[in-house]
Amino acid sequence: MTRKHVSVLLVLALAAAFVVPLAAQTTYDRAVVVQVMRDNASTLGQVRTALNKGDFFAAASGFWKFAEGMNRIMQFTPPKGSKTEWDRILGEFVSTALRGVGTAGEKDAAKGLAILAELQRLNQAGHAMFR
Q1: What topology does CATH give the domain 28-130?
Q2: Mean of per-residue pLDDT scores for the chain
Q3: CA distance 91 to 80
């Protein structure tokens, strides 16, 4: 190897040593997570009201919004707690929210409200581990 090759390899190694930690720091976007959590809090009341009024389209839209938001943040590695638990809880949350869309399609308010209670339980479990 020539000195030029060694120099190029050294520069690449140093660049990688600098870029990799920066990339790892951007894996968790706190602002996105906080926004999803705030959206979930307001959507919870909207879905509950929609179910109680028999507005199943609005309820389905809210359940879908839950699934979209949690699916969006599932890509992150939490700063606290394990990634495995993060994926498990968020995956279960998304699946449960999608079941909520189905209960809205069935026009079953009681099942929809039970799904909301399950989502709240999962939310509390997540907050206990990752907050």
Answers
A1: Four Helix Bundle (Hemerythrin (Met), subunit A) (1.20.120)
A2: 86
A3: 18
